[in-house]
Structures are given as structure tokens and as C-alpha cells.
Amino acid sequence: MSDATASSRFEFGALTDVSLRSVLVHVAMYGAGVVFLLPYVYMVSTSLSTKQAAIQPGMNWIPSPVTFATYVRLLSESQVVAWTINTIVIASVTTFLVLLFDSMVAFSLTRLDWPGQRLILGVVVASFMVPGFVNIIPLYTFISNLGLLNSYLAVIFPFVAGPLGVFMLVQFFDNIPDEIQEAARLDGFSAFRIYTHIVLPLSRSILTALGLFIFVWSWNQFLWPLIVLQEEAKYTLPIGVVIIQDTFSFQPALTMAGALVASGPLFVLFLLVQDQLISAVEMQGVT
Amino acid sequence: MPYGKRTQQSTRRRFIEAVGVAGAVGLAGCGGTSGSGSDGEAAGDAGGGGGMELSYHTLFVGGDGAVMKSIVEEFNETQPVGDVTISRQRSPWEEYYNQLFTSMAGGNAPDLAISHATYIPRFQDTLVDISDYATATDGYVEKIFGACQVDDGLYALPMDTHPVGLYINQDILDQVDAEPPFEDFAEFEATCNAIRDETDALPFGPNPVDGLSVREWYTSISSMGGSMFSEDNSEAVFDQGAGLEAAEYYHSVSGERNWDRADTSEERVLQSFLNGSVAMMINGTWGVADMADVDFNWNFAPPRITPNADRLRAATDSHTLVVPTQPDGTEERYQKAVEAAQWITQKNPEWGTKAGHVPAWNPILEGDQLQNSDLWDQTLKYYTDMAQNGQLAYFPQLSNADFYDASNWNWMRQMYGHQLGPKEAVSKGVETWNSNL
Amino acid sequence: MSIVDHVSGRFANLTNLERRTSRQFVEGMLFALPYLVVFVSFLLYPLVKGGYMSLFEWNVFDPSASTFVGLGNYARLLGDPDFWNALWNTVYFAVLTVPTIVLVSLGLALGVNRDIRGRGVLRAIFFSPYILTVTVAATIWVDFYSTQYGVINHYLGMVVSNPPKWLQSQLFAMPAISITTVWWLVGFSFVVLLAARQSVPEYLYEAAKLDGAGTWRMFRDVTIPQMRYALFFVVVVNIIWTFQVFGQPYVMTSGGPGQATETLVMYLYQAAFNQRSFGYAAAVGYVLTGILVLVSIGNYYFIGGGANE
Q: What parts of chain A have a pLDDT lower than 70?
């Protein structure tokens, strides 16, 4: 209530200032939007071109004729369905486990109080700085010894071990005011209830964001799944898409079509989650 | 915030469900099939159950991949070496060798794998010496077979050789009345100059992918009788003699001669060739895949592109089949793998007729099927000719460096793009290679 | 006395404080356990094993035949000019990219936060490059930077007579990769900063306005301090990512021209897969990690100081 009157008073008071600034902001944002979109337009337009048209000199933003032949080829000449299923399973399970495990450990490290937690937090955060390649050989041998090679778990577990989620959640859980937790303790809440009834609901927006990021990240991984999956039917989309491309034949349309197919589902997911993200964030902003 | 009992129960239920799902997925994951070394059920490309299943890793994708797929399918249907099926696996070339390497390091190597001949010494320690298992090897082309033999042992069976040659846009050449094949460099030079002066097109782009690469340069070095490395491959020696001359020549191609731009953007020459703005380029046997639907008349000729060349040479490599050692490998298994490899390399002319490579097995090489194929008149007859006349120049087989790794050839691109002069570039190149060797 | 009696007797002997502490420890550990198990097995253990490997001339195929070299690998890398070149390139790349990403994402977040029409669409546009695999993003931009056929030079060529050969020029190659990286990664920081901006309470801005603060003062005294945690997080994450850059230069330039875009992780990759010196590669990895730890600590002191209060 008072918010509305206050802001409208402000707007009224400096109308011309706001208009000019508003125009500039609009221009800047839309301009940035166009620049950001260009690569996509290129991608889509190339993938819908015929092979011939794709290699002509000059810029042809709108392909003529528009052809879906490349996509048909993509779908019929490959195990795209299997790859999509694999990728979805791996990404979903990884995301679920990360949200669950990372929120639990972040909760434990920030909201609870026990000896040794500083050390553990330090180690986890430090591990964030380790480049993945260092671990490849020992990790591969370890997984092979466990007999997990060529299974979904071989891909999922190393992903879940990543500390990004812990890092992110620790930052945000730390931000939760102590008073809420103390009040709950006085009400006789166990740690578990505090976790499920206070911390988790308050963190909906960050958890959604983290979930989206992890899903996208694990979907897009290329090198590790390639090394650890040994069967074409088990490959994920990023790998499969490269398989189709002829290493020595120049097929820009096919490359772009493959890229679209491999990223399309993620984009759809983002559009779906985006709404939820907004409402969760807005809710948090207002309370 | 609702604190009621109902919320608590649903939370607990959700938690239990979640654990159940994770457990189920875990069990499903543990059932992962098709490790190597298992005599279990067939999967993937294989036919029914029982019998031995060999895992086979390849780097063939696209057109080559389709041909190899049908070869493996035929093997699994006809089962020519007993109750054995093959489960084929393909990876993109860039990562193929790393994947193979890690699988060997982890004790999970496949039963059969493709390896370029160049890489055989690099993997030698992990390959089985198959001299005892390979019984029917008399028909392989001698030079190619020689590349599979290292230190008195036999480590691979050759499948093909894939040299480079000159791909030509005949429509452009018609404009200057040129008729390949070229007798010598002088004719090539005259044609290029004519194209440059009288048409809109650029005459010659050496390499389709990045302007200039090792294939053309090595072709030229060999055509002048020189070499890249010392006899024992311990030192790079190309900063003088033929190596330097070849570098200077290519520097001039994108420089004084004006036959091409000094631009090493990726795929530029291939794109230009396909859309008709570059007349000639050097490409390998696989180049036919690109030619399938061009809208101009194309032609092919052996690569007489080097000044001061006293012989014709074409740089080449081979695809071979190797048998990695297994921690629990049995003689029986190795035997079957070798027999399968023999069948693949000796009984499948379509590797030549459809994929366009030059077979390494003489009966096919000299046989009718090859000569009756569509590709024979277009490219295969020239390639075969060169193979049979000993005009192929094999890449050096280095045991401790990755010959194809792009970062080893950055200096070459800089030279072609005119950021470095030829002398500077080759000395930089020698430095790079000596630090590798 | 039975075991149960013995144990419960022991428990009864602890003071209240000790009992509470040990229960807290158990509680804390229970929550932390699932993650820690996975973390220790699949990250920490290989990491430590890697550290062990870095002390050897590691023989991948026959580990028992590896030769112990102590700190030899580390000495070797300190003396290798290629290492220093890679380090310099990586720092250069980080200096180009991190401030750009942070500033651009902050600008976009603040811009989208305003009452602007079509903000849902804009939000989607700015975030979406992040969902592409690195190879896809890099491949598209390689096409864009192509000297003859690329979009950039096509339009630039209408204005400038000799547009640069982006990925082949010593001067422009790294900035070109940096631009690609900004386009690709800004979405992540953008969403984080947007969420943070939207959780800054409105009344703070109103109070500032009542105090007569202009836009700049509000930005400096309300927005930035309130977004401290998020900013710190974004800066650190981007530093860590840029120091580990691999995919973009690998696909776009193979470390060229010359070695101008060869980064530390590329150098590591070469050592591991090209030269097959896994011990040496592990040493490089450890040095890189050490650098990042130092950078993060420095970062904490200069930017994040007080962020965790």
C-alpha cells in the first residue's frame, strides 16, 4: 500500500528524468537482446537450409528454400531416441541427488553446530578449484574396479560429487536469519523439521535455480560420459550428435541441426521452469 | 507456514519414494551390459545370444560409419569365424584415441580397435603381437603391411590406405582449357596462373580444413625426396632442405603467387571449393563424400603440385585393426579377434567401392568389383595406381608423440596466414616437435 | 554387566554439554553423510591419488613400474616456458572475461529488473546461451569469426576496409574467445544476480529516496551492499571457470595462433593425452588448483570481506 503511493509519488516527481532513462534502458536491453539472439538465428537458419545454400558466400539469414531434410536425416540415421532417454535419466537423477544431498550437507554445515564442520566446508570449497582433467585416470580406474563402467551411475556419481551446489547453497543458507531458527528450536523442532519446514521452503528460488543449472550442466557434459560409456546405445545427446557428423565432410546444416536437437529440450525446460523461478523469486522479494 | 502433522507425513512419504527411486535406478545401472571380455549375451549390433561377442571400437562416423556398420551386420548374420559376433562402437575421431587410451589404462580395452598406422608404435606396448594368430596374411599390399610390423612383431592388420590427391572443379578449368591430369609441375603452375588471371576463382587452396596442413606439406617434402625426421625418428630435421623448400613454396601460394588467400579460417577452402570460388584443393580418399552432390563437374588428379619434384608422391595413412591386450585375455579370444579382423579386411570390397578408400588386400585391389564401382573412374583408379607404383608416402610412425594433434601444427597455419615467414615457421616447428619427441 | 549396561552407563557419565555436543555431531554428520560419501569416493580419493601420481613418472599401463621422482615434476613445470606461457594466457583470459561477465550480467540484471516490457522474453534470451554445450557455442562462433565467410566480418567489412582475421591474429584471438565466453556464460551470473536484486527489500530504496539519494547513490549504497553475497559468489565462480577454460580454445584455435591461446588446462591436457605423462599432468593440475586457492583467498579479502558475517 504505502509502497504504491511512495513509488508513484517518486515517478510523478521526476517524470521527464524517468522517461528518458526508461527509453535508454529499453534501447539498451532490446539491443543486447538482439545481439544475444544472432547466434541462434544463425543456427536455426543454417539448419533449415539445404546443403548447397549453407555454403554459399554472403549472409542468408532467411533460407530459401526452407527444408527439414536435415532434421529428417538426423532422426532417421541415428539412435537419437535412445540418446535422449539416456541424457534425460542421467540429468534428472543427477539433479535430484544434487538437490537432496547438497541441501542436506549445506544445512548441516551452516545451520547446525558441530565440531569439524569448518574443516569439511573448507575442503569442499577448495575442491571446487580442481580442474576435472586431473581426476580422469584415477577416477576411471576406481569406477572400473567398482564394476560400474558403462552404467548410468558411472556418470552420475562423479557429477553428484561436484561442490558447486554446496558452495551455492552454503552462501544462501548462511543468509537465513538466525531468529527464525531459534524460534523453531524453542518450539521444539528437531533438526530434521527445521530442514524440511523452514530451510527448504525459504530456499525455493535458489533450489530451483541450482536444479536448473545442474540439470543443464549434466546434460551438456561430453568428455566424461564419452570416456566412461562404452556402448553407442548408452551415449548421451552431446556425444551422439557429434557421432552423426561426418568428420571429414563439411555439413554446416547437419552440425547446426544436431546442435538444436541436443539443446532444444533444455530450452523448453528453461521456459517451463522460468515461470516457477519468477514466482518463487517474486514471492520471496515481497515477504 | 503450515506445521501440521499432515505436512510431516507427506514429507516423509516423499523421502521414502525418493530413496526407492534412487535405489531402483542404482540397480538398473549396475546391470550395465557389454563389458569386454565377457562371454555373455550378445547386445548392440549382434545377433542372438550365446557364443563369443567381440567388442570393436571404431572412429568411423558419417559415410564411413554407415559402410562399416553394414560390414559388421553382415559379419553377425553370416558368422564366418564360428559362433562369434561383433558389437561395434563408434566415437568421433577427436576423442577416439583418448577414449581408447583411457580404456586401456583402466584395463577395459575392446577386443578389436581401429588404429591409424601412424599410431601403432604409440600403442605398441598395449597391443598383442598377432604374428602367431594371423595365418592368412599373404595377400596384403606389401608397403601397407610393412607399416603394421614393428620390431619384428606384427601388431595390426591393414584395412586400407587413404592417400591424398587433387580434387578439381573442372568447370573452372574448362574456362582456361586445362585438362588434368598434369604431367608435371610446370603444367600445374601454368594452369593456376591462368585461372588466377583469367577467371574469378582462386586457383588452389591446399588444405580444405585450415589452409595448409601436414598432408600437403608432407606430400611436397616426399616429392622432393626429403623427410621430416631423422632416420630413427628422434629428431625433427625439416628446417632445412626439402622441409624448408616446401614451406617456402606454400608460403608463396598464399603470397607472391596469389593462388589463394592467406586465411586459415576453419573450413574456408572446403566451403570455397564447394561453392565454386576455389578451383583445386588437396583432399583424401574420403573427399568423395563431399563431392556427392556438388553442382559442378568435378575431376581428380594425382598431386603433382610441388616445384622441383623429382618424383610423384602422395601423403597417406592407413586404417588398421589392432588387438589390445586384455588383463584376462585368452589365446582363444585373441585368435577369434584376429580371425574376425582378417575377415573384415579381406572380404569386404565395399570399403573401397562405397567408402572410397584403397583396399589393402591385393585380391580386392586387383579385383573386378573395385574396377566396376562408380568411384573407380572418378578417384579410385588414380589412387590404386599410386599405391601399386609405390608412390605413397607414409607418415612417420612416432612412438611418443601424437602426430595429428592440431596444436603441433600451429606454426604451419601461422606461416600460411603470413604471420611468420617460412624460415621462422619451420624453426618454430622443429622446436615444437623436438620437445615432443 | 552386559554391554548395553556398560555403554549406557558410559553415556550416563557424560556431562550434559558433552552429551549435547556428541548428539549435535551425530545430527550434523547424518545430514552431511550422503554428500560426503560421494564426495570422498568420487572426488577426494581420485584427487589424492592424483597427488600421489604427481610424485612419479607415472606409467599408466603398469603403475607398479612407475619411477619415483619426488618433486621432479613440479621442478620441471616451473622450468618450462610453455607452462609460464599457458599461465600468462590464462590470467590474461580471466582478466578479460571475468569483469566483463560480472559487469554485463549485473547490467542486464538491473535492466531486466526494471519495469520493462517483454522482460520474460529478455530473461530467456540472456540466459539461454548457457544451456548450450561448449562445443556448440564454440562452433557457432568459429563460424562467426571466419575471415571470409563469417557474420562479423561480413558486416564489419562494409565499414572497415580490412577487417581483422580474428582467430588467427595474435592480438584478437584471445579477446575473440573472451567475447564468445561472455555470451555463453553470462546467463548463469545474470540469473543469480537477478534473484539477488529481486530479494533486496523495497523499503531500503524508499528510505534512501526519502534521504534524497539519487540513482547512483542508491546503486552504491543500497544495491551493491545488499547484493554482496551474490556478487562475491558470481566473481569467484567466474574466476574459477575462466581459469579452467579448455573447450573454447580447444575447439576454436587449438591453442593458436602459435601458442597465444594455449591455456593451463590445455597444457595439462597435452601433458596427459599427447605426451602421456600422467604424473606430470597431475602436478600441473595441483599447481593450477594451488593458484586458484590463492586467488580465491585474495578475492575473499578484497571483495568478500564480511560477506559471511
A: 1-18, 244-249, 275-287
Q: Write the pLDDT tens digit of every residue in C195-245.
A: 788 778 888 888 888 888 888 888 888 888 888 878 888 888 899 889 988
Given a cut of 50, the residues of chain B with pLDDT beneath it are 1-49
Q: Is residue B130 part of a domain?
A: yes
Helix, strand, or coil here: B236? Answer: strand
CA A162 to chain B, closest CA, distance in angstroms equals: 18
- CA of A39, closest CA in chain C: separation in Å? 7
**CB contact (8 A) between residue B35 and residue A150:** yes
Helical H segments across B254-356, by residue range: 268-274, 288-291, 331-346, 350-353
Q: Above 80 in pLDDT, residue C308?
A: no
- Cell 562416423 belongs to residue: B61
CATH number for the domain spanning C222: value is 1.10.3720.10
- CA angle C284–C184–C143, rounded 5-degree value: 95
CB distance B287 to B231 below 8 Å: no
pLDDT of residue C112: 84
Cell of residue B207, nine digits? 588444405
Burial of B300 (0-12, 13-18, 19+ CB in 10 A): buried
Check CB contact under 8 Å for B125 and C61. yes
In a shared domain, residues B143 and B285: no
For residue C192, which of B347, B357, B318, A168 has the smallest C-alpha distance? A168
Which whole-number Å values give the CA distances from B114 to A243, B55, B59, B60, in the listed order?
Answer: 16, 12, 7, 9
To the nearest 10 degrees (0 to 180), the angle between helices C81-113 and C119-127 is 170
| Chains contacting C (3+ CB pairs below 8 angstroms) | A, B
The verdict on residue B222 lying in a domain is: yes
Query: How confident is the model over A83-117, as pLDDT tens digits?
Result: 889 999 999 999 999 999 999 998 888 877 787 88
Using left for φ > 0, alpha for ψ between -120 and 50, and beta otherwise, residue B167 falls in: beta
Residue B127 has a pLDDT of 93
For B232-273, write each residue's pLDDT tens digit: 888 999 988 899 999 999 999 999 999 999 999 888 999 899
Q: Are A93 and B22 a contacting pair at CB < 8 A? A: yes
CB-CB neighbors (< 8 A) of C123 in chain A? 274
pLDDT of A287? 34
Do residues B98 and B193 both lie within one domain?
no
Say yes or no: C39 and C111 in one domain. Answer: no
Q: Is residue B88 part of a domain?
A: yes
Whether residues B142 and B174 fall in one domain: no
- Nearest Cα residue to B190 out of B313, B305, B297: B305
How do B319-322 and B112-116 pair as beta strands? antiparallel
Give me the helices (H) in chain A, please: 2-13, 15-47, 51-54, 69-76, 80-110, 117-127, 136-145, 152-160, 164-173, 178-186, 191-194, 200-202, 204-220, 223-228, 237-244, 252-286
B302 and B323 share one domain = no
By DSSP bridging, strand B314-316 and strand B84-90 are: unpaired
- Given the cut 0.90, state whether the ipTM is greater than it: no
Instruction: Read off the pLDDT of residues A200-241 as tens digits, 9 standing for 90 and up.
Output: 887 877 788 788 888 988 998 887 888 888 778 888 888 877
Q: What is the mean pLDDT of residues C88-99?
A: 96
C114 and C256 housed in the same domain: yes
In angstroms, the CA C92 to CA A264 distance is 34
User: Which residue range is the domain that position B294 belongs to?
Assistant: 164-315+405-436
Note down the domain range covering C178: 80-304
Fold held by A78-244: MetI-like fold (1.10.3720)
- Judge: A130–C123 Cβ closer than 8 Å, yes or no: no
